[in-house]
Amino acid sequence: MKQRRVAIIGCGRIGKMHAYAYARTPRVDVVGLADVQRARAEEMKATYGFSGAAVGEDYGAMLREQRPDLVSICLWTPLHLPVVRDVLAAGVRAVHCEKPMAPTWGEAQDLAAAARAAGAVLTFNHQRRFLPNFMKARELLASGRFGALQRMEAYNPANILDWGTHIMDLLFSFNAENPVRWVMGQIDARTTARWFSIEFEFAAEAFLRFENGVRAVVHSGDDKEINMGIRLHLEKGIIEVPAEHDLRAIEFARGQWETFTFPAVPDADRNNDAEVRAVANLLDALDSGAEPELGVARALRATEAIFAVYESARRRARIDLPLATRDSAFLSMRSAGVIGPAPAAPPPGPAAAR
Question: What is the pLDDT of residues 137-151, one digit of tens each?
Answer without folding.
Answer: 999 999 999 999 999
